[in-house]
Amino acid sequence: MEIQLPFNFISLLLFISLIFSLIKLWKKSKNPKTNKNLPPSPPALPLIGHLHHLLGGALPHVSIRKLSQKYGPIMYLQLGEVPAVIISSPQLAKHALKLHDPSCADRPQSIVSEIMYYHSTDIAFSPYGAYWKQMREICIFEMLSPKNVRSFGSIRIDEASRLIESIRGCSG
């Protein structure tokens, strides 16, 4: 004998999505200033954001060009969980990079860089600031000085010739 439940699976999914939508609307009504200063953006889907506009068949850069023709040279895209402001005009990009250079130079923090790179203390994953500038100076003056670069010249030539021989061996 089967037990009949009052809801089937589709009804349950619709009910859960209705609850999430109501919670989202409630949070949005409590904090109306969150999206006030954002540039225009195309309609987004709940979990993937605007990814469906970029992966809709055309190449992503072609899709961004089409979106910029419709929404202007500055637009906001939500790429999954990552918010992004797209600037498609060279003049506006130059202006934005001049005004907000430290904001654009900073790297996003991730759990991988925290675990594998000792709390982001290496030069590749450290946040932009005094520590990064100090690490860059050490790298330039100690590792990439003309004397050190010349001292490894023979090794670079040997490795390049090995690479060429390896490619020749693979090609036939």
Automatic annotation (TrEMBL):
It is a single-pass membrane protein. The chain crosses the membrane at residues 6-26. Keywords: Heme, Iron, Membrane, Metal-binding, Monooxygenase, Oxidoreductase, Transmembrane, Transmembrane helix. SUPFAM superfamilies: Cytochrome P450. It is found in: Membrane. It holds the Pfam family p450. GO terms for molecular function: heme binding; iron ion binding; monooxygenase activity; oxidoreductase activity, acting on paired donors, with incorporation or reduction of molecular oxygen. InterPro entries: Cyt_P450, Cyt_P450_E_grp-I, Cyt_P450_sf. GO terms for cellular component: membrane. It comes from the Eukaryota. The keyword Cytoplasm does not apply. Belongs to the cytochrome P450 family. This is Cytochrome P450. The lineage of its organism: Eukaryota, Viridiplantae, Streptophyta, Embryophyta, Tracheophyta.
